[in-house]
Structure formats: structure tokens, C-alpha cells
Amino acid sequence: MTPKRPEGAGAIPKSVESPALSSPGPANLYAALDLGTNSCRMLIAQPQGSQFVVVDSFSKSVQLGAGLERSGRLSRSSIYRTIQALRVCQQKLKRNRVTRMRLVATEACRRASNGGEFMARVRRETGLHLDIIEPQEEAQLAVVSCAPLVSRKTDQLLVVDIGGGSTELVWIDLTNVPPAERPKSIMRMHNGFHSSDGSSPAAKVVDWISVPLGVATLRDQFNDVEDDSARFALMSWFFEENLAEFAPYKDEPPREGFQIVGTSGTVTTVAASHLGLKRYDRNKVDGLRMTSDEIDKVIRSYLALGPTGRRRDPRIGMDRQALIMSGAAILQALLRCWPTDRLSVADRGLREGMLYAQMSEDGVLTDEEHE
Asked: Is 182 helix (H, G, I), strand (E, B) or coil?
């Protein structure tokens, strides 16, 4: 069971500025904004049962981290683009009279020497107060957002969130949790990886890691490599090298009872290509299960297309084509480490995690069984 979303508010479009589809009271509305290295995205939603319905949304590529690898600072042009996008978000929050919200910034603002200065400028020019969150909270929110996709048959779970500037991996042991309680035990992690309400066995986090390589930062590391295939191979190898400190790295689990949930624009784009969609459809992509062979086939087709072909592919799109191969390199490295027949595609992420966390905190979600 997944959150309901207005038609057209998928993960791939360059910019989404949907009008409010209904006019619920402001007391019933929640907002979540995720300012990442590449994109600025926001959802405004209303709780409905054990899920929520989105009433307004915004998504735009702002490339906040452009040039960060080289200079260590957020550039003037990146700051300008981002503030313009945040002004649109502020207008939507004001129009919907939202008072319950969580607005966060991630890797680019964590790493930039002028990240704090930028946050102050955002407050001054837009009135929005964004928190620069730590990697662990980013990982927690990604895990919570994927709770509805966790199978009751899953004993070992790996949640992967491929961002623009970093990639979070969380390994969770569910063997001590009754099968019917497994999705709910993931939802309870909004209070922390080791939190429990004491009423039932808790999911156990075996290990987690935040790799400071995402689709934008990994691409920038190998911009000087001209050959497309060589650049891809180097990116995949380099990312795998950065997994050495992750405890479960060398221990391949049995395929039975093991599930990877992947959340990112890369994963949803690969899924759309696998399905042959002419137009992105979140309802077909979110929750889709793909085998490693199916994913590898899509990645090989991207390499065969080359840069020019990928730019023309409507499933990739102009906004995603510059980042798809670095994301695919990360995905390939993960599948090389942990072959699985159960990779679940999640069109969801920090925003959904923040919404679930706020609503759970307020007790406005009903305690229904996950499908």
C-alpha cells in the first residue's frame, strides 16, 4: 500500500508545480522539503488512514552542488537557482497555510564551507528555516519512507538511498520480528535506529553507512575520463571500494528472505526503462520488483546508447541523462556485492519519511495492517 499522489507528480519530470487538488483545513496539512545536492523537492500532504494523500508538490533540479568538489563552496549561480526554487516552495506553504512542516538540507550543505552562511541567506530571503541534517537522520528517514514496501517474508533488509551527494545504506535484521509486524517495525524507526516502543520485538540495525558519493559527486570525480565505458567501470569500482567499512560488505546473505529496497531517481529511471514506459507512471514503478539480471540488461542498454543516445531517450530525459550512468555505476556495484532476486523499486525518499515521522509523532495515522 503506497501513498496516493496526484497524477503527474512522479520522480522524473524536470519541474513539478502542481496546484492544490483540494482545500483541506491547514491543521490537517503537513509539509516536507528535501534540498539535496541536485534537486529541491517538497510535498504537502494530508493523513489518510495509515498513509497520506499528497495535495501539492514541487520538484526542480537546482544543481546546488555544482562545482562543490572543486571549490568546496556553493557557487553564486547555484545559490541563486536554489533560492528561486525555495521561494516557490514558500509561496505554496503560505497558500496552503501549512504550519506543521519539516524542511531539511543534506550533503551539499553539510560539505560546503559556506553552508551555514547559505542557510542564513535562505531564512533572510524566503523566511524558510532549513535544518542541515546529519547522515544518520538522512538514513533513518529513507528507511521509514520504504516501510510499506517491506515484505513480511523479509528476514534481512538492505535499504539504499542514492542521492546527489551521498549514498546511504542501512542493513536491518528482522528475524526476531513476527512476519506480520515487520513493516510496522521499520516505521517505528523514525525515532532512531535503536528505538522500540517496548510492545513488540524491534528491528535490529546491523550496520549503516553514508558514502560521500552520490550521482553528482561520483560523476564529478571522473569527469576527466573521456571513454564512456571506461568511465562507467571506474565509477563502479571506486564506489565499491568505499563500501569496505560497511560490516555486511563481504557476507553475502542467502537469497531467500533477503530484500533490497532502492530509492532514488536512478532506480526509478532504470525501472521505467525496464518497463518500456513512454511516459513515467509512478503507480507502475513504485513497489516494482526487479532481478539483478533485469537491471544489468537496462544498464548495458544505456552503455550501448552512449551519451548521445541517452540524451535522446525519453525515459531518461535531459535532466537525468548527465547523472544516470554514475547512478547506474552505484547500483551495479551494490548488485555485484549482494546478488538478489528481490530488489524493490521505491519512488519515495526523505520527503515521505519526514511526512510519516511527523504524522506518527502526532498520532494521526491509523494503525492499519500493511498489505
From this structure: helix
The Cα 340–Cα 9 span in angstroms is 30
Domain of residue 167, CATH code: 3.30.420.150
Q: Tell me how crowded residue 360 is: count the other CB atoms within 10 A of its CB.
A: 16
Report how far residue 50's alpha carbon sits from residue 147's, in angstroms, rounded to the nearest whole number.
12
Cell digits for 261? Answer: 529496497
Q: Pull the grid cell for residue 108.
A: 551539499
Residue 361 domain flag:
no
For the chain, the domain total comes to 2
Alpha carbon 347 to its chain centroid, in Å, reads: 8
Of 161, 213, 169, 172, residue with least CA distance to 345 = 161
Beta carbons within 8 Å of 308's beta carbon, 6+ residues apart: none
Look up the pTM and report it: 0.82
Name the phi and psi angles at 344, rounded to 5. -95, 130
Do the domain assignments include residue 371? no
Q: Are residues 144 and 114 in the same domain?
A: no
Instruction: Tell me the pLDDT tens digit for each residue of 135-186.
Output: 989 989 999 999 889 988 899 899 999 999 999 999 999 999 999 888 888 8
Which runs of consecutive H residues, i.e. helices, occur in 72-176? 76-95, 107-111, 115-126, 135-145
Q: Is the dihedral of CA 316, 322, 327, 332 positive or negative?
A: positive
Q: How far is CA 35 from the centre of its chain?
A: 11
CA distance 114 to 219: 22
d(Cα 146, Cα 217) in Å, to the nearest integer? 24
